[in-house]
Write a structure and sequence with these properties.
Layout: E1 2-7, E2 14-19, E3 27-31, H1 34-39, E4 43-47, E5 52-55, E6 61-64, E7 73-77, E8 84-89, E9 101-105, E10 118-122, H2 124-128, H3 135-143
The chain binds zinc ion.
Length: 145
């Protein structure tokens, strides 16, 4: 078992995750979708609710980057420093992406040698196509949300 500590840049959000072994043995996902590419995020899929938060869990702000309700998940970020903490499926969701798991942004973990991570490219961009800048905002305005 190896425990890794993580926090946002300003330290409002602090947590640990415990893995069965080293993080360098795990597959880390590098997604090229319109959101993840902008965040330079790297994910480890981690059992939901097993991250231990010491501060800031409820302070995190949410952003829903997709208009497709079947793929709905919320991206969580720090309201003070803007650090992107990772995603969580929107529950309940029959077609939720990886039910029972959340995506922890490995970029927020301390003492990680990024050159040693075993990266897997998730080619989401080819699967779902390019997104239209501004379309999300226009649709949300129509819905009045
Ligand atoms: Zn912060």
């Amino acid at each position: 078992m190896t425990t890794y500590s993580g926090n946002c840049h300003c330290g409002l959000i602090k947590y640990t995750i415990t893995l069965p072994g080293s993080i360098y043995e795990q597959t880390i996902t590098s997604c090229n979708c319109s959101w993840c590419a902008r965040q330079a995020a790297l994910f480890i899929y981690f059992p939901k609710k097993e991250a231990k938060y010491f501060s800031g869990e409820d302070d995190r702000k949410s952003y829903n980057a997709t208009l497709d309700p079947a793929r709905a998940f919320k991206h969580k970020f720090c309201p003070q420093c803007g650090s992107y903490m990772g995603w969580q499926s929107t529950e309940p969701q029959p077609a939720a992406f990886l039910p029972g798991f959340e995506g922890i942004n490995v970029r927020m973990l301390n003492d990680i040698d990024f050159s040693k991570l075993k990266l897997k490219l998730e080619d989401t961009r080819s699967k779902y196509g390019e997104y239209e800048v501004g379309k999300w905002y226009e649709e949300k305005e129509k819905e009045g949300t």
